[in-house]
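LAB NOTEBOOK - FOLDING QUEUE
OPERATOR: T.R.
BATCH SIZE: 2
PURPOSE: Compare the predicted structure-token outputs for two unrelated chains run back to back under identical settings.
PRIORITY: normal
REVIEWER: second-year student, initials M.K.

ITEM 1
FIELD SEQUENCE / FIELD STRUCTURE:
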Amino acid sequence: MNAKEFIKHLLSIENYSFSLEEITQHTDGKGTSLKFELARLIDKKEIVNLRKGFYLIIPPRYSKQGQLPIQLYIDKLFKSLNRNYYLGFYSAAKFHGASHQQAQREYVMIEKPKLNDIEKNDLNIRFFTTSNWSNKNILEKKSDAGIFKISSPALTAVDLIHHQTKLGGLNRMLAILEELSEEIDQNDIAELLTWYPHKSTLQRFGFLLEELQVDKNLSKQVMEYLQQSKYFPVLLSPKTKQKAGAVNNIWKVDVNIKLESDL
């Protein structure tokens, strides 16, 4: 079997990606001839070298975009790297029905160590890392190519709030948080509160749930958790040279920006 036949076989079983190791095992192309064949397929835009040793197959229906929906290959990519991941932030929000002003970039949370962002052709993937990996609040969804992992609505919301300064600020995501809050339920929050380590983010989260006037039971859950130990004033939007001043709400959140949703 040559590379082209192997790729055709993968497509026939709804498999849209492969590693160099995998194609080497299944084809008669050895070393140089295989690399030459892959280079030719890249030139013809039939495959894309996503990162060293990992390729995406671009079937005709995606050839115009020159890229694949991330859910068709993300699980296989991280299996090949033997790393934990979940699709998060704006990418996860889209799957939860909150796709307001969807950017042409995908966002993935991974366990440390860091992974370089991918920007090639029309592919743009940004990786965030965490040292507090938990398998909680991670959902499995089904795509044509199989299972992929995404953050639950509650984890998606706190991730956005926690990394707001790197993601365009709170006002950019306010409409998305509003849409996400309709998908968050008490079980989702209860699970989050068993492991989520950033108390200041939970304060901002609870404050915003109240501001967005969602089900009072959700913000009540977060407040009951915070009241179990001491918590201190925090800025709603973290600024490097600014410290939280006087606070006049139970969340101890210093509202240092004007909240303006662009919904």
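ITEM 2
FIELD SEQUENCE / FIELD STRUCTURE:
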Amino acid sequence: MPKDNNRYTLTRWQKIWSSTLYGLCRCVAILPRFVRYYILQEFIYFILHYVIRYRRRVVMDNLRNAFPEKDEKEIRGIAKRFDNYLAEQMINTISLAGITSKQRMRLLHFPDVEYYVKTTEHSDTVLLAAHHGCWEYLSTVACYDKKHKLLSVYHPLSNSALDDVFKRLRRCENTELVPRDDCLLHFMRHRGKEQKISLGLIADQNPFRYHGAHWITFFNQDTIFAQGGEQIAMKFKLPVWFGYMSRVRRGEYKLCVELLYDGKEEVAPNVITERYVHRLEAVIRECPELWLWSHRRWKCKRTI
């Protein structure tokens, strides 16, 4: 697997800090599954839920606004299950330090892989996902689909050492990590080569408010969504897929995909993004605790 040249721009102390953190992840990753998911996860859940009450007000406000039809007992139940899922997600991420690409395929089942590969084999494609389920497993798609190189778009962290740790955890066969601000230029430079490209985007990020933003009703609230995936798809006539997860058991998920846009249909601006948003909301409603309720998704307010 190619080395990440960005790692060598770190200072000596940043490299030491990064290597130490990654080494700790490796130590946890080699623990037996039972220890990681039924002892360590429960301990982290206890700390998150009962001790530090991690972003409790944000989580509760988001849930109350999203589900006005649910009573307080139901809301608290979702919040409790969310904290347990968040602890599991931490274990999932740390465990990436000790598993191979083949082992990843046992953790993310992809029953639609033959349909997906056959449908996309002759073109580049855009894969839109979300912070639902274990999003850190999404690069596993590249292990199943050898005909496409996955450009996994990520948002760099302000802490360089921690950012380096996450890049090392996210490395995967047939995958290239691309910073969010460079994804369009990187895609244009590499498209048209022998291996097709799949552009993977976590599209439920909270973008900055921008002039002319298109607001979409998402969980009863006016919401801005990033338009990058749609814009690239429309510009290059690429199919757009929606990838979403369901939980099999602790640490194991199933990935399903749906075609949102075939690259040929004549659609108005924002239609592709709206299709993504409506399907995402439906998926979250089926299993709300698997979405990242702790981030401030609705901090931008619409002004009339």
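REVIEWER COMMENT (ITEM 2): The chain has one domain: 5-290.
FOLLOW-UP: none requested
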